[in-house]
Design goal:
Elements: H1 6-26, H2 35-63, H3 69-74, H4 85-88, H5 94-115, H6 121-149, H7 153-166, H8 178-185, H9 196-209, H10 232-241, H11 243-247
Helix pairs in contact: 1-2, 1-8, 2-6, 5-6, 5-7, 5-9
């Protein structure tokens, strides 16, 4: 921790979560099942990218090395990203995308709600603005999970398969480390584990309404928050997301 700025790391985590998931959701643009979903997914992606600008912009200021949000987004390599592994998982089918969104949204809103009371006024302001958007994200994703889970035999099967696939990535969001401990001590952010009970209640109620069975195994993949380990999917995603900026460094319109 002697060479790490905990606040910078925390801001990158918040920004990278929004950036990576926002890019994932944007991959549906033009190919969603119906026009209404195409527009809705695009709006969610835009919200997340807007939040990225705020989190990474502040991270750049805290770092003090001249990197703005664009530099942090487009000129870091895979091992420098601090997003949770859930956010980088592939879209799969529409049901898998919406299950991933719901599992993330339920945590995201809880985290932002807690950050509204942060001792850091800039972080609190970003959280307050973002929470308004994420409230809509969660409402939409939970309704979709219920509709598809308690829908046809085929939609139910797909949603259960998506839940089984993605559940092992949920636990990482609640695992604390030295960065989290420093944020808690400074009154900036909540203890990750403190959000788990509320999350489990919300997710459990939603899955029950969707007639889906929560996996019993609580195994949790980890490594994304610290950059120690990412899945191969993030590298492939970054080659698409960053290629223009890497091919033409510092280009401007």
């Amino acid at each position: 921790m002697s060479t790490v700025n905990p606040k910078f790391e925390f801001l990158c985590r918040m920004g990278d979560n929004a950036l990576v998931l926002g890019h994932r959701v944007s991959e549906w643009c033009g190919v969603a099942p119906v026009l209404e979903e195409d527009i809705a997914l695009a709006n969610v992606a835009l919200d997340l990218i807007g939040q990225t600008q705020l989190w990474l912009g502040l991270a750049g200021e805290v770092e003090g090395e001249g990197r703005d949000a664009d530099k942090l987004a487009f000129h870091r390599d895979v091992w420098d990203f601090r997003n949770v592994l859930l956010a980088e998982q592939p879209n799969g089918d529409f049901g898998q995308t919406m299950m991933r969104q719901f599992l993330f949204d339920a945590w995201h809103l809880a985290q932002l709600t807690a950050l509204v009371d942060s001792s850091d006024k800039e972080i609190a302001a970003i959280a307050e603005k973002s929470a308004k958007e994420v409230t809509y994200h969660l409402e939409r994703s939970s309704d979709t999970v219920i509709g598809l889970g308690d829908g046809t035999e085929e939609s139910h099967r797909r949603m259960q398969a998506a839940l089984d696939l993605l559940w092992p990535y949920v636990g990482e969001m609640f695992l604390g480390d030295d960065v989290d401990a420093a944020m808690v001590e400074a009154g900036i952010a909540p203890e990750p584990e403190s959000l788990r009970a509320g999350y489990d209640q919300l997710v459990g109620d939603t899955l029950a309404a969707a007639t889906l069975s929560k996996p019993e195994d609580d195994f949790a993949h980890r490594g994304g928050k610290s950059g120690a380990r990412h899945s191969e999917h993030l590298g492939h995603m970054l080659t698409q997301m960053q290629w223009l900026q890497r091919a033409y460094p510092d280009a401007s319109w």
